[in-house]
């Protein structure tokens, strides 16, 4: 009888898959491509529409089976939070988030094991960015994980250290890095790439960034930096929504002294479109004040893009000097330092070329295959 790893794939078909949905898809594909001899992967999904089941089976053709719970996602999340259901049974369960059946078990006797993944600690550090219900759910599930999870996966050592300050999991924490999302490749056909760029209305020259106007993301700082005197008049393409709450990108740009016509918000779902956006940029700027992972940097590195990033711990860990680091500091001056870094990269081709080379070199350190093999080894160790 084969050993079965039961992967919760529900986030892929969530109404808003988000970064965890991208992570789930990428890791599941890699787990299927690296199945050890005598093992198999089963998918677990909440009660969903038949079309969603078909989509999962088409996306992950190597799954041995797809276990479908009797409860829909919302009800299942509530039941798992309170430990009110035994679904989906036991075995080796891997959750790409905190959405997991955490309950009392003894793996030394039953062989059951549950591993969860923590991507950030926003419920503790920035609860205002989440709904009240989401904060309560995340806090409740992490407390259940402390009691019942056999291991907790985090994407960076930086997040592991911060997690220990919130809840101490001791030696149960494992750091398993991320990699670029599947399909993040510029089309080989130049005409197709050009057509995509035209459809996305990309400007001739621009900086790229990802995120929202949420203060911790640093996009406001980036706009203020671009509005400083002497900074090159280069466009900014933000991969994300144009609004956050009552804030609008064009309004914030104008208040920062940047012509709103130079700022573009683009929301893309197709990885090839994202690749075209990133690859066409003069540089990628990651000004965030706090992150749990550095996946956005890894994706920019994979395309050989010069990267300018803040010195938030996760970025510094992931970049490992592959990008140009800008200290946030505690006494102000971050915007000015960011403006100086942008000016240097845009105006000095030799600097941009050097950063492009270091980016490509650093990209070799990350692969989903390696991440999947680490997950297989983690479950084997347990």
CATH topology of the largest domain: Rossmann fold
- Strand count, sense and closure of the main sheet? 7 strands, parallel
How would you state the average pLDDT, rounded? 96
Could you tell me how far the N terminus lies from the C terminus, measured between alpha carbons in angstroms? 19 Å
Number of helices: 16
Descriptors for this entry?
382 residues; Rossmann fold; 2 domains; 15 strands; 17% strand
Summed up:
The protein has helices at 18-33, 50-59, 73-82, 107-110, 122-125, 132-148, 157-166, 190-199, 219-226, 249-255, 271-279, 295-302, 313-319, 334-347, 349-363, 368-381, and strands at 3-8, 39-47, 66-72, 92-94, 113-117, 151-154, 173-175, 206-210, 235-239, 243-244, 247-248, 263-266, 283-286, 307-310, 324-326.
């Amino acid at each position: 009888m084969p050993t079965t790893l039961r992967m919760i794939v529900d986030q892929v078909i969530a109404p808003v898959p988000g970064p965890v949905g991208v992570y789930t898809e990428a890791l599941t594909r890699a787990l299927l491509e690296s199945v050890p001899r005598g093992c198999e992967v089963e998918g677990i999904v909440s009660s969903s529409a038949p079309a969603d089941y078909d989509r999962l089976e088409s996306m992950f053709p190597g799954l041995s089976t797809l276990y479908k719970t009797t409860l829909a996602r919302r009800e299942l999340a509530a039941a798992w939070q309170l430990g009110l259901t035994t679904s989906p049974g036991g075995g080796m369960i891997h959750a790409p988030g905190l959405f997991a059946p955490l309950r009392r078990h003894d793996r030394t006797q039953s062989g059951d094991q549950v591993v969860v993944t923590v991507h950030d600690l926003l419920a503790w550090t920035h609860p205002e960015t989440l709904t009240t219900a989401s904060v309560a759910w995340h806090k409740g599930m992490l407390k259940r994980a402390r009691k019942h999870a056999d291991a907790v996966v985090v994407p960076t050592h930086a997040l592991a250290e911060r997690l220990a300050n919130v809840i101490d999991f001791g030696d149960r924490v494992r750091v398993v890095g991320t990699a670029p999302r599947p399909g993040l490749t510029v089309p080989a056909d130049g005409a197709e790439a050009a057509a995509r760029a035209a459809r996305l209305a990309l400007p001739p020259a621009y900086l790229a960034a990802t995120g929202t106007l949420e203060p911790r993301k640093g996009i406001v700082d980036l706009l203020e930096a671009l509005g400083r005197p002497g900074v090159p008049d280069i466009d900014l393409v933000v991969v994300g929504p144009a609004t956050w709450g009552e804030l609008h990108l064009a309004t914030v740009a104008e208040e920062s002294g940047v012509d709103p016509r130079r700022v573009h918000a683009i929301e893309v779902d197709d990885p090839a479109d994202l690749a075209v956006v990133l690859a066409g940029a003069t540089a990628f700027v990651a000004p965030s004040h706090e992150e749990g992972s550095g996946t956005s940097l890894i994706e920019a590195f994979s395309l050989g893009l010069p990267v300018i990033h803040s010195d938030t711990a996760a970025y510094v860990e992931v970049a490992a000097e592959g990008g140009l680091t800008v200290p946030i500091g505690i006494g102000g001056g971050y915007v000015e330092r960011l403006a100086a870094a942008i000016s240097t990269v845009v105006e000095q081709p030799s600097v941009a070329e050097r950063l492009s080379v270091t980016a490509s070199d650093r990209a070799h350190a990350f692969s989903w295959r390696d991440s999947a093999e680490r997950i297989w080894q983690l479950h084997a160790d347990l």
